[in-house]
Amino acid sequence: MSSVSANPLLAPWTGPHGGIVPFDRARVTDFKPALEAAMDEHLAEVELIAADAAPPGFENTILALERAGQTFRRVAAVYAVWASTLNTGAFQAVETEMEPKIAAYASKIYQHSGLFARVDAVYRSPGFAALDPVQQRLVWFHHTHFVRAGAQLDVPGKARVAAINERLATLYASFSQHLLADEAGHVLYLRHADELAGLPESIRAAAAAAAAEREHPGEWAVLNTRSSMEPFLTYSARRDLRERVWRTYYSRCDNGDAHDNKSLITEILALRAERARRLGFPTHAHWRLADSMAQTPERALELMMQVWPAAVARVHEEVRDMQKIAAADGVTIAPWDYRYYADKVRKATYALDMNAVKPYLELEQLREGMFWAAERLYGLAFTPVQGLPVAHPDMRVWGVTAAGGRHVGYWYFDPYARAGKNSGAWMSEYRTQDGINLSPPIVSNNTNFVKAPGGAPVEISWDDAVALFHEFGHALHGLCSNVPYPSLAGTNTVRDFVELPSQLNENLLLTSEVLERFARHAQSGEPMPAELVAKIKATQSFNQGFATVEYLAAALIDMKLHLAGSEAVDPDVFERETLAELGMPPQIVMRHRTPQFAHVFASDGYSAGYYSYLWAAVLDHDAFQAFLEAGGPFDPDVARRYHDEILAVGNSIDPRTAYRRFRGREPKIDALLRSRGFPLADGTTGE
Ligand SMILES: [Zn+2]
Taking the complete model, does pTM exceed 0.70, yes or no? Predict the structure, then answer.
């Protein structure tokens, strides 16, 4: 039994630069008592603010709220690492028990009528106009948060919204745990060499290592994750096995067993719709988008439908090109054939073999490349730090400094897949830049690369290299933050803006500056031949029909599910019928089918928000154009402006204003359409 007073998670973080995360002192049994004590402490702080006899003002209400809850933030940061990367065994029971309790605690704060009365008074007081613009935004931010949580509802209304949030928290945890279970529980073991036909050596080696790790020595494991599925479908010459791997992957949580997520989705959608209605919005999508750049579902849909027809038309062209080659194999392109024959078209048309690119994409070299680009653009230097506690031995830490050696923050890197780790790649903030306590940010990047046997260099695919740069862009957003108040700092921005820094950073991979220095052959150390670089550049719009349709289909289904209002939704029927109405090409499935759509159903996170990547893509293509117009991807003046107006400001000013200050005008969609080879609005295709 761990007593609360001895609970190491409750203690302030100690060590350099405002303290470091005490991963070495965290035990699963400590999470529940630590979270409970931290929530109680925060609620007590909030009661004191609400009961203050002095008239409500910025300092005693808004700033006091901003200062409260620090213990909870520390405990929750560690808990979130277990929830997303070490979610096995005893932790799952803790998560299932604690998620609804955390939701209930959040409701107690944001539905607190005495507290809201004070926040509202500050918001409406004549003194508001005298505050500086960032203070005004902080008041607005907290006021909005309260209103969106139901602070203005009557007592039964508040109780119902709180009950909905608690139930949703439980459903989200189950959704995630089912997905982890279906990814870990369906491994395809290959036993004969002829089942490896077409697979390049690096993939065979990784599959052999994965099998050995799972006590299947001498076999090859195809894991039920994107990082294993995509290369297998790209290279396996065994159509029967491609179909099997494809079906297993796209059936996750859709198998009618204990891990099926469909009934959870029906319930989640109904609860979200009811919550939105009670809060005064027609649908969950309207409630979500009220706090976004797009502002309304209609504007988000309009953008998606502006791109969709061109993307579908491109898919038909891609299928036609592939079919010419597939016909010789007696194959009519099915979804499990797309990646395989696209690769063949790429080889035939552009003489580009992506598998010849892979040996030049070595994980640690690319990491150095990301650092180099961040130093050149923003003057940041990354230095490995030994001896800091980590949550898993695979995690490593770097200290980040700015010009003159000023400490900027820490960057943690957790690169490899393991049981209990969410699939995909993401960034998280262990500590958001805190201008009140002067604590620098601590951020992390998490990916699911497959470790090479015997500690050999890890070669990754081009798409994975892009994802690496993407997540690092989020990390830079967190690290460069320079905002007075943590609620408005770092990546705490609206969802359709937050993908701008990440997607902009993707562009740096494809610069000659980075490729020449860091795309070096994993064995020989030779730089990638210029001819290969030129071919990669020449094929940037290749297969963009597939990539765009795969993504947009998921984004459209997400939005339409959340516009369906109070209908009882059968996710299976809804997905099938909506895709048919949209004219979804039969050769492609949604990037995330509904039962697997963790962005949307493992939290409120990207619900009615998956369109954000496209919204932000308009911004990041237009922003990158500013660099190119000025003198290149590393133009120092544009980089400084981008750093100061976008990366450093967090949510301290309206993102539309921030963007205009950076670009000098509203964003234009042309650069995005041109990069994907789609027609521009005026009917031209550009270069
Ligand atoms: Zn992102």
Answer: yes
